[in-house]
Target: Mandelate racemase/muconate lactonizing protein
Amino acid sequence: MPLVDYRITRFQFARDRIVGDSQVRASHVHVATLELIDSEGHVGLGFAQSLFHPLPSEEELIRTFDEEVWPNLKGQPAIALAHQVKRPRGGHLNRSTHPFGEAIQHALWDVAAKAANLPLWKMLGAKRSKVRAYASGLDYHLSDDVFCSLFTQAADQGYTGFKIKVGAPEIERDIHRLDLLKQAIGPNAKIMIDANEAWSPKEAIQNLDTIRRAGHEIYWLEDPILRFDIEGLKLLRETAGNTLINSGEYLDVSGKRALIQAHATDMLNVHGHFTDVMRIGWLAADMGVPITVGNTFLELGVNVALALPEVEWLEYSFQNFEHLVETPYKIEDGFIYGSETPGHGLVLCEDARQAYRQPIIIDNTQLGPAPAQQRLALK
Model:
């Protein structure tokens, strides 16, 4: 069943809160959907996101996709493209002008699983239907009151793991937020912190020690230092005691492999490139390295999380995207469940396409209020 057509729809809308870390912030969503269509009418859905800047106009996205990407997809079966192995060098592997890569992998696997009449997680070999989710606030820019409201609601909803952003210029600010977190969630939860590369190796050692002396045991420390500092990550792994080092988020497959082979991380952080995640997941399982699935658009990563034996946690960060699809994934008592429908389980909502499509770039001040959030009611 070859691919015969595609659709691209551009969206732009306000978030319900400012998200970010100690270095970046975002107040609006800039995303395009890619729908790949095969000769039997199966439609595969993928998402291309720009975190901080508006995507080009829909017309420009279509023009570049048609020129740079579609000739390599047209007429090919989705499953073959999903499994395709290319040389890691050569001019033909240049990235496309716009961020279509992850969306293509989403859509290809969705079409392939629909053609096989299987939920994607089952097609990938999963033996379980749910995985534990941890509540992530993307919370650095929130006021203390909103921070507490978010995590109190998360605890009430059954989450048992919680991750906050750290990396403030003064460690006292990070400790203050950890104090507030403990008040919101109680004493027995697992606490993760994410510095987004804000620290040097020695700073990370000192700050982790200061945090411990302030009464906070940390389950994992995520991306504490620069992604390519393998020697620094090895030093942290050797000195962090019971705290696990979780890294690899910003690395491609080759970088993740190097990280594993150097024994420079306790856990490997992956995201939404399904083909790449399954490949590096095989290597991680072979070497006994646990995997965590970080933020994926609308939690699409649940499909690979269920399929990989080393995954214990998937990140859920209460972002207001769920209006874009007919039915989001079920989350209950701190677990996220795979969809039982063929494909990855998400279908673009036609009402949302009509309401939130923005074919041209709109000034953010003209976009109006954020769509209603289904799983969170911030005060």
Q: What stands out?
A: The longest strand covers residues 3-20.
